[in-house]
Write a structure and sequence with these properties.
Chain lengths: 394, 394
Amino acid sequence: MTTPRRAPGGFPVVGIVGGGQLARMCAGPAAELGVTLSVLAEAPDASAALVVPSAPVGHHTDTDAVLRFASACDVVTFDHEHVPPEVLERLVASGVAVHPAPEALRFAQDKLAMRERLGGLGVPCPRWARADTLADVEAFGREVGWPLVAKTPRGGYDGRGVRVVSAATELAEWLERAATTGTGLLLEERVDFRRELAVLLARSPSGQAAAWPVVETVQTDGICTEVLAPAPGLDPDLSARAVEAGLRVAGELGVTGVLAVELFEVEDAGGAPGFVVNELAMRPHNSGHWSMDGAVTGQFEQHLRAVLDLPLGSPRPHAPWTVMANVLGGDYPQLYPAYRHVMARDPEVKVHLYGKDVRPGRKIGHVNVSGGDLADLRERAVHAADYLTGVVTQ
Amino acid sequence: MTTPRRAPGGFPVVGIVGGGQLARMCAGPAAELGVTLSVLAEAPDASAALVVPSAPVGHHTDTDAVLRFASACDVVTFDHEHVPPEVLERLVASGVAVHPAPEALRFAQDKLAMRERLGGLGVPCPRWARADTLADVEAFGREVGWPLVAKTPRGGYDGRGVRVVSAATELAEWLERAATTGTGLLLEERVDFRRELAVLLARSPSGQAAAWPVVETVQTDGICTEVLAPAPGLDPDLSARAVEAGLRVAGELGVTGVLAVELFEVEDAGGAPGFVVNELAMRPHNSGHWSMDGAVTGQFEQHLRAVLDLPLGSPRPHAPWTVMANVLGGDYPQLYPAYRHVMARDPEVKVHLYGKDVRPGRKIGHVNVSGGDLADLRERAVHAADYLTGVVTQ
């Protein structure tokens, strides 16, 4: 069935463009809330298409496909940031309620626009510059020192589109490509950070907002592998300032739905803790997967409530600590035996799988564990994830 | 799509016969676990059919439809107890893994068989008798006193098929009907009980079992309206004996999946607390809905794990108390405005709706609230449910 079947009682249909795991993880909460979900999927076996009755196949760059899909929905939201601005504008022009709206989403789609806007709001950011030429890169390198970080302003995720470079010439090819699209490159100083944090919150069109506790995200080779909720030992004042900055960004940019603000925790010259913003994402985010089992309201339920302009749920955690560990694909495609083992070893581990083919390094699931002893939870979460990946075998 | 699309990695397909809310509430956990769900639904707009991609329409008494449905599944389980034994036997004969198996399920399908079997196990039951004639009823009335409780052995639920009678003649019509089917009637003494309790547990084909804490169920006009988890002030010894009886029943009867044992809490002649078994259900049960939000592993996830013979999850509660209140249909079919109000009034209330048309008295959803103050939680849960029903308007 490609047309969503509406539930009785006046309940709306939420359309999600993109059939990845973020759309998939909305399916359970949508069923509980009684709202209908429809997904514009990349393929009939996309992660979300496996669990949602209405999953027409179509591409997010195909304006007609997106418009046709949206015509059966009351609200349209997104699994990713890759819907082109011109498609978004057509959606809005056709009268569809789009959350987040294009004028907010562009700051998650375009990292140069984001840097400019956050700077204007006085939100702490690394020093940055736009580069179109090798001379621009060299000038910025002289200003902030080498190595520096170069990013393609659009389309990157999970470390793709990000490079650490020690000489301008390393960017010759990227600059050439950027010249053809006219997008330029974003250069940033390399931040000497203590650790990475994330502020996760949701905001509704009415302006209600709710933030989960600030978490620590642990990255390995540019991919988030572990999230500790809340961030252990976080300075309470820093936490309050980070949440305040997240709420201000959400309000000023008019974000609707879930907003993730990725931060670097830094020290100022006097050794006092501070932060700079690394990235924004305007959708449920890997740094919030812990909330599915660790909070009264998980991020996927909250995203649905927010885009429907329903009152938001409590983000209160259930337990002192929840640890999330990502399951990355390993070499062995038959996951089920490892999954049995993980469940048998630890009856408190919550295993979430995305119905995706195993490919080395691909995010295919995650696990959550909640409790009172952080070190114990980390050991268990990472062991379960590594066992599913095939990194450990006992 | 009526054929379930299998997820990669060796993950199985679970088929559920019956598309009611119990099947629906398996959808979220199935998506999280990565297993595929398929539902044999009564209609295209059945509660579960609204949220599961594979939901062929067919009737549970239609052997061919059930066999065809089952041929695409690795395991078959049930939304209700109404699949006829001859259909179940055909399923087993065709090589399908059926959980619970027919030889266990018959004790939930036939209350006379259940009474006989539990009596044989020494599990405390009310005094009971089979009646085929008015004389049988009169004799039992003389033995246990009037009024007494009469039950049709098959097909009853939510108070249907149960009558309290003060004279044998009130059962004339029921006896006549029972004579044509040869099923007889079950007569039971009316138990003078303190309150109703329920033991909920899951057992896997390998014999692993896990029980949630014993709960109190509050009934109104024969329908469960509220569940308090755990049962407040329950004598620890009584709790242990009740769970032990539940585990013994599950083991001796070979139950697989979730088993609910409904109990009356009674006092013996010396005033000491005891219990007698009222009913058995071999499927997720209304008395376990609290576990969806109140425990590490909810009953729907646990039922899937059990019927798949996966290791069971922890039944540990998240909070000191969780209160569940059923949402019954009221007079107003447009539920959505009330739902917004309930969410705005209490951000901690978890609202679960079943996508069903509102009909007066019909179970159309439930709410859960967890926390530390039982009286406060009861007030909030019942208010939210009553507001959704339309019983209260502010």
